[in-house]
Amino acid sequence: MSNNNDIDNQQVPPSPVNPTSDPRSPDPTPRSARDDKKHIGWERDVLEKLALFAVKEQRARRRWSIFFRIALLVVVVFGVWMAFTYGKTESEPLGTHTALVEIKGTIESEGQGSAGVVIPALDKAFAAADSVGVILKINSPGGSPVQAGMINDEITRLRKAYPNKPIHVVVEEICASGGYYIAAAADHIYVNKASLIGSVGVLMDGFGFTGLMEKLGVERRLLTAGDNKSFLDPFSAQSPRQREYAQSMLEEIHRQFIEVVRQGRGARLKETPDTFSGLVWTGSKAVELGLADGYGTVDSVARDVIKAADVVDYTQTENLSDRVLKKFGVAFGAGVAKTMMSSALPQLR
Q1: How far apart are CA 264 and CA 290, in angstroms?
Q2: Hey, what domains does the chain have and what are their CATH numbers?
Q3: At 19, is the pLDDT very low, low, confident or very high (cuts 50, 70, 90)?
Q4: Coil, helix or strand for 207?
């Protein structure tokens, strides 16, 4: 019994405590080792971010490459389609038809109303073997007497070259001034009762800034060789002699305009003191005065007058690049400069 008591009374020495088992005990790892672990973790994060960025960049580059390839394919397909369409229009027989050429908007050196656009279309319309007549559709308030005169002269030439192909003008909204200068060369002019016709006159408009410059204290420093070299300069005062000369130019162009109308309309024209005064008449009044021949549309004139109901449009249109440039306003500055330069030129409008 004594032995058992002795064993029981013996104290068991406490087991050593692992310092790491107590969460409150300090980390026995040396500070340098901990810093190395943090440093390695930071480098790993940077490498992961760089790798992820490189992958994203590669994907973006691949997407842009695919985009440009598709865009190039679209451009090529569009070009092939345009070439195919152009060749088809040129070579494919169209059958008996009425050729249509349209003049829309202001008549000027550039745009759809310029001689450089209208004349080639008229030449092609007359030269087409299957066209039996030409309709010139005009919706224009007028414009340059030079461009209008060039188109008028070409119509006169084509009528002589193709005596069996009539050319008729059809007006929907307005055919005034330079537009009527062109129309007078046609065989007949057809209008709507409410169309605006005539305005046989010439004008020259502009601005004078001399008074404003004086108020602002701006001095115009202009050196010229020639007494009239500054003629029509908006920043210089207009002398009575220069004004008289400008008026004589307008009257000369007006006489040319009157002669063109008289030659084109002939005995159909019923002249009054107001015929060449610059007034505009309705279509019904124009028919009464002999400035127009009757009422009609493109379809009715093709069907009832030319006797070829099928109408083929020979009007030249702007190409894609011109439309894009205009849409984004690239030509804005050129348009402003053009307006400043052309405002002092004679206009048939």
Answers
A1: 11
A2: 96-202+264-342 (3.90.226.10)
A3: very low
A4: coil
